[in-house]
Design a protein that fits this description.
alpha+beta, about 35% strand, Aminopeptidase, eight-stranded mixed beta sheet
Length: about 170
């Protein structure tokens, strides 16, 4: 199990005893937020998703107790290019805009570049999701461009997204 610790949060590999809570989060439209597409999944579908991806639970650092705040994840998006990964993240609505997600993404990015042969990390975010854009920019990601009608939001239909990337040489 991987555990990475920062000043505000720690991230750790998502375990089987996290699945019930993760399933509840995944099926909560408030947790998905205003910008993400919302597609409820059965427990078995969530379990398969977790097994096929690399999810980390984000927890607030306390000396006497742990509070789960959300997750960060990475996954290979092109099997023909194994040096490219995409990252994603979600945080409980009550815990947003407190710096937790920014630090969790930093822990994940540092871990990926230090342990894997990665050339490029990507992340996409809704064109209006300014807090997510700030998370990426604070972690050195560069805005590359607009992907028109790349996602579909259940509240407002087709949505444009912004592509961000972080290259290995950007970190030197």
């Amino acid at each position: 199990m991987v555990i990475l610790t920062g000043n505000k949060v720690r991230i750790r590999s998502l375990e089987s005893n996290d699945l019930e809570e993760f399933h509840q989060w995944w099926n909560d439209p408030e947790f998905a937020g205003d910008f993400a597409s919302f597609a409820p999944m059965s427990f078995d579908e969530v379990e398969t998703l977790v097994k096929e991806s690399n999810f980390f639970m984000v927890e607030r650092n306390f000396t006497d107790s742990i509070q789960k705040l959300g997750f960060v994840a990475y996954y290979n998006i092109r099997t023909d290019y194994p040096y490219l990964y995409e990252i994603g993240y979600r945080t409980l609505p009550s815990e947003r805009r407190k710096g937790y997600t920014t630090e969790a993404v930093k822990l994940l990015v540092d871990y990926l570049f230090s342990t894997m042969d990665i050339e490029r990390l990507e992340s996409v975010t809704d064109i209006e999701n300014i807090p997510s854009q700030r998370v990426l920019e604070k972690n050195g990601f560069r805005r590359e461009g607009i992907l028109r009608k790349r996602s579909r939001n259940n509240k407002s239909g087709y949505r444009d997204e912004l592509m961000y990337s972080l290259l290995k040489e950007d970190r030197l």
